[in-house]
Amino acid sequence: MTEVGASLLDRLAALEEQGLVAIRAAGDSDALETARVDYLGRNGRLADAMGAIGTVEAKARREVGQRANAVKTALLAALEDETRRLSDAEAAGKGPRLDTTLPARRSWVGGLHPVTRVIDEIAEIFQDLGFTRVEGPEIETTWYNFTALNIPLDHPAADMMDTFYLHDDVVLRTHTSPMQARVMEAHEPPVRVLVPGLAYRRDSFDPSHAPAFEQIEGLAVDEGIDFIEFRSSIQHFVKQFFGKDTRSRFRPSYYPFTEPSAEVDVSCTVCSGSGCPTCKRTGWITIMGSGMVDPAVFEAVGIDPERYTGYAFGMGPARIAMVRHGIPDMRLLYEGELDFLEQMA
Amino acid sequence: MNLSFNWLAELVDLEASFQGDAKTVAEHLTLIAAAVEKIEPVGEGLDGIVAARVLEVGPHPNADRLSLCKVDRGDGAPLDVVCGAPVIVKGALYPHVAPGGTLPSGFAIESRKIRGELSHGMLCSDIELELGRDKGGIMRLADDIVPGTSVGEALGLPDTRLALDLNPNRVDLGCHVGVARELAAPAEALRERDFGTSWDPAWRDGDDEASGAGLRVRIEAPDRCSRYLAAVVRGVRVGPSPTWLVGRLMAVGARPINNVVDATNYVLLEQNQPLHAFDLKTLNGSEIRVRAATDGEQVTTLDGQTHKLTSAASVIADRDRAGALAGVMGGLDTEVTTETVDVVIECAAFDPAAVRRTARETGLSTDASYRFERGIDVHAGEHALKRCVELILATAGGEAEAEAIRVGPAPTRPPVQKLRLSRVKQVLGLDLGRADVATHLEPIGLREVESETSGGGAEDVLQIQVPGWRTDITREIDLVEEVARRVGYERFPDADRRFRTSSVPEDESVGAAARVRRELVAEGLLEARSLSFMPGDHLGNRAIVAVPNPLSNEESYLRAAMVPVLLRRLEHNFSRRHRNVRLFEIGTVFDYGETPDQFREQRRVGVVMTGGRRPGHWSGPVPDLELWDIKGIAERLAHRLCGSLVTAGSEASDDPFLAGGWLAPDGFRVEKDGAIVGIGGLVRASAVDGPPWAAPVLAFELRLDAVEPVRHATYRVTSQFPSVRRDLSVTIPADVRAGDVEAAVRSVATDLLVNVRLFDVYAGEELGEGRRALGWAFRFRAPDRTLTDEEVESEMRLLSDALEEQFDAKVRSA
Ligand SMILES: [Zn+2]
User: Fold this and answer.
1) Among A105, B36, B487, B555, which residue is least crowded by beta carbons within 10 Å?
2) Domain coordinates of chain A in residue numbers?
């Protein structure tokens, strides 16, 4: 193609682009009419360009002509569109309007229980460290519930006062820890499990106790697990779950099935450690009982305590949910009251 | 366990390590030993309150209950004071706050007229001084101080009380000496208070019986008491304890009683050894017998309660009768009173289980029983008894017998326990040398003993002598814990989290529950959690497994189904005037197994819903939920998660475990592999305690094990060719079920039938007796071509023929 033809094509392309912008940006019918006259009028820019087609050599004339027609079609279509849009808008401005502030048609909103969400979040964090979730029976033998966990039956923890006995040697489990023994009996190390579930104690139902309550148990057994790894894993959990600015604190405690045993406190999420009613003005909230698996537990399930070590921990998701949502009374969690569940959903 | 900071500071130097700061001490104890739950000041605001001697006491002329006293504050200017206490002893000392002074509460004292008599200040009770809870009246002070002495100073106040939360294995921290050991610097010796008296008796020993000092002691139940030490102090003057001792007791919240009883309590709080004082003259035959109670024997304890005992309880008796509950509480008959002249001090080692039985039988729990149940230091009895006798001699005077009694075999030496440095490394991850370990353990009495055999690997092994007060240390791991604790858990190095693999696969039930939750939340249901308990029968909703020792009737059974428990939650919502309720819960239900000591558990999901199908809207009325809505939810779970169908079934299930007393006739069920795994429908009106404004209640229950592992859909090419809809309205006998008609349609149709939908159900007289009309919409489509009219007609004929043949159907229109 000759230079004349090529430059006319460029001009048409620019004209199309500018024309479309002018039409779409018009905003009202006066401006639109100005744009129409400017581009499509008898003396408009397009007419001007088409007038130049005669100067193009014959063999390119057809192509340039087609291009000019295409530009005209595009501009006319845009003009028509914009005219319709503006007139609709003007009509709407004059006629009766719909009150869109009226309430929407809604469906019922479902939601998970806050304790479920706590359990799920805990599980997710430990799943990243290789833990799997398992569940176990809520009715347990005294062997799994006490004996295998190094709790003698005449120990205060096995007391009738605190335990629901269903039969001589059958109880409602008082913790999820019996699954430690069950899992280790059934599987060779390495073992990494999380056990969510209900546990039962003969506590009357009051603002901070329930006769049945959720627990989530963790157990990690392998060669070479030491207290440093245990503590750093739990610290990782605390930062993930409570936030990276949360501090944690390990302090000595006692459980028959762990040694060394530790309770884990986190800096109060309500007052950040300055002291408030939630943390009983200590700045700390206890979230976990934990420790290195006691060799007696390994022996009870036939694992060599000289070869394997591990850690175990237990948390109360209900209590964590109470802290997280500022729930003052544990009973609210178990009443199934609609206002409460909708707030938490 | 309450600790006095001042007391600890007397035993051990708290300035060097802790700048004498109670909060720092508390934090340290929390991190290495046991949590300090509370730090509270004791005896603040006592400035200006001084000991005043009552010179005269007489009745108030205008009031029966008041007395008029003249008191001397040591400044030679006696003051008149009106006092409301029943007993004011002339010549005794009492705390006095003068006009212009204030009580600890901030209450300002002025001279004022009380019933016409001018009172200059007041004599104070322990409550007014914020030192006690007892209504003990005006606080009498001992004569070891002079009028004008600052009461606070004499009591050793102000002090700080630390409330220690003892772990059950660390009963040794139940006393000030025990806690001081944890705070001591290496090689620091504890400074026990010097009472200025001394007693070193000649021991009269015997295996089960010994006599001396005018007393005979016999252990008749050696399984309940391994050792019994006794001393006799004659000619004591029972009265108030010296002010410093009163102050110590008040600082820890203990109630001062008299100088003898207070001495036993002081030594308990110092040494952890429970002691008891008897009035010797009340012991018939001057005898002490440690024995089982006889059945029906009675003892009235110091708190005034009378206990009827069985032989499970252990008692301290004289020749004739029981006088105290062994290791739990003394008896009223044998207690030390102001009349007492000669006292016997008991220092025994009672068996933990025996004490627990006695405590349980009598419902008592005391400072003594707490310690005996967890184990005391049987090697420390002599020292504790010596401390107690010396304190009594210092505070109550008298003469201690030079002989003391000691019955029972000498306790065996505490064990030597080995500790391998390699084990410390394995469990804790710390590389510690022998000297490091010794630094951590020696201050708390865990000392390395000379190893008798040295040889191969001995470099790794430490032989540690366990002290008598650490009855909890019996294994190597116990020493490993001591090392970890004394290093301080918070001083362990930080490390990165570590991923490890697990040989345990994830339980399918976990994923199943999660998927059920997701579906139900998407349906607008709220997840509830309830306790697993219910009454045995509530409105025909029965449970099966009884709890033998329930807390209440409401919690006397374990649920056998989820729906009944959710119905209770619904009733709760009704009581809160909620009409639109939609709940679900995933939980465990319980049944007996083959024999009454066997049990079955099943995971279930239950759904209960009632009220409007949507929240109300201004555009028009919202219909209430009905059977078809709960059936829709059941289908969603059954089809999407269980790969099974929902079928009709009015008889819920033969399985009592799944049966619901709640289900009204004409329900539906979910079947899988020939078994019923779910039931649902309308809830019987009689099964819910609902208000008149309640809408029909719908419920559904499904076994969670019916949920299948995730199955991923396989993509099928959808046809590019148009589909054709044809409607078919047929009349059928009323007892033919729509589900059977649909099943027949599906079984005879070819692949061209892609969708079946029932769009109309009609019953009218013109249809004839016992008939109803069903309107079906069928959609046909071929994957590879546009269907011709002929093809579709042929399909329709196939269907209508089949229905006519199988169900006596008549085509109304096509
Ligand atoms: Zn706080």
Assistant:
1) A105
2) 3-91, 114-344
Distance CA(A108)–CA(B633), nearest Å, equals 14
pTM for the full predicted model: 0.85
pLDDT reading at B458 higher than 70: no
pLDDT at B215 over 80: yes
Question: Any idea which residue has 């949507």 for tokens?
Answer: B614
Angle at A206 between CA A202 and CA A212, to 5 degrees: 40
Tell me which CATH code domain A114-344 carries.
Answer: 3.30.930.10
Say whether A227 and B551 touch across the interface (CB within 8 A): no
pLDDT given for residue B763 in this prediction: 85
Which residues lie closer than 8 Å to B634 by C-beta, 6 or more apart?
Answer: B646, B668, B670, B678, B680, B700, B702
The percent of residues above 70 in pLDDT, for chain B, comes to 97
CB contact under 8 A, B531 and A129: no
Residue A159 CA to its chain's centroid (Å)? 41
For B21, the 3-state DSSP assignment is coil
Least confident range of A131-135, A284-288, B140-144, B403-407: B140-144
* Out of B485, B500, B504, closest to residue A183 by CB: B504
Beta bridge partners of B679: B669, B701
Q: How many A/B residue pairs have CB atoms within 8 Å? A: 254
Query: How far apart are alpha carbons B418 and B478 in whole angstroms?
Result: 11
Residue B484 phi, psi (nearest 5)? -60, -45
For chain B, what is the mean pLDDT?
Answer: 91
* Cα–Cα distance measured from residue B26 to residue B37, given in angstroms and rounded to the nearest whole number: 9
Q: What is the average pLDDT score of chain A?
A: 90
> In chain B, positions 545-584, which contact chain A (CB-CB < 8 Å)?
545, 547-552, 555, 558, 566, 569-570, 572-573, 576, 578, 580-583
- Residue A227, CB half-sphere, CA atoms under 13 Å: how many? 32
Q: Are A161 and A201 in contact (CB under 8 A)?
A: no
CA of A274 to the centre of ligand 1 (A): 6
Read off the pLDDT band of B654 (50, 70, 90).
Answer: low
A 194-213 → B contacts, CB under 8 A:
198, 200, 202, 204-205, 210-212
Q: What is the pLDDT of residues B13-51, one digit of tens each?
A: 999 889 999 999 999 999 999 999 999 999 999 988 999
Q: Does the structure show a pLDDT above 60 at B814?
A: no
Q: What pLDDT sits at residue A1?
A: 54
Sign of the alpha-carbon dihedral angle for B792, B797, B800, B806: negative
What are the pLDDT digits (tens) for A106-146?
999 999 999 999 999 999 999 999 999 999 999 999 999 99
ipTM of the prediction = 0.88
Separation CA B612–CA B696 (nearest Å): 10
- Residue that has been written with the tokens 């939340």 in this structure: B521
Each residue's pLDDT tens digit, A162-203? 899 999 899 999 999 999 999 999 999 999 999 999 999 998
User: Which residues in chain A have Cβ-Cβ distances shorter than 8 Å to B35?
Assistant: 251, 263
Q: Please state whether the peptide bond connecting residue B696 to the residue before it is cis, i.e. omega within 30 degrees of 0.
A: no
- The 10 Å CB-count burial string (b at 16+, else e) for B517-529 is bebbbebbbbbbb
Cβ <8 Å between A335 and B569: yes
Write the secondary structure of B139-170 as one string of H (helix), E (strand) and C (coil).
Answer: CCECCCCCCCCEHHHHHCCCEEEEEEECCCCC
Best-predicted range by mean pLDDT among A22-31, A228-237, B731-740? A228-237
Per-residue model confidence (pLDDT) at position A95? 60
Measured in degrees and rounded to the nearest 5, phi and psi for residue B572 equal: -60, -40
- Give residue B96's identity as a one-letter amino acid code: H
CB-based contact B510 A227, cutoff 8 Å: no
Q: Which residues surround ligand 1, an ion (CB under 5 A)?
A: A 268, 270-271, 276, 278-279
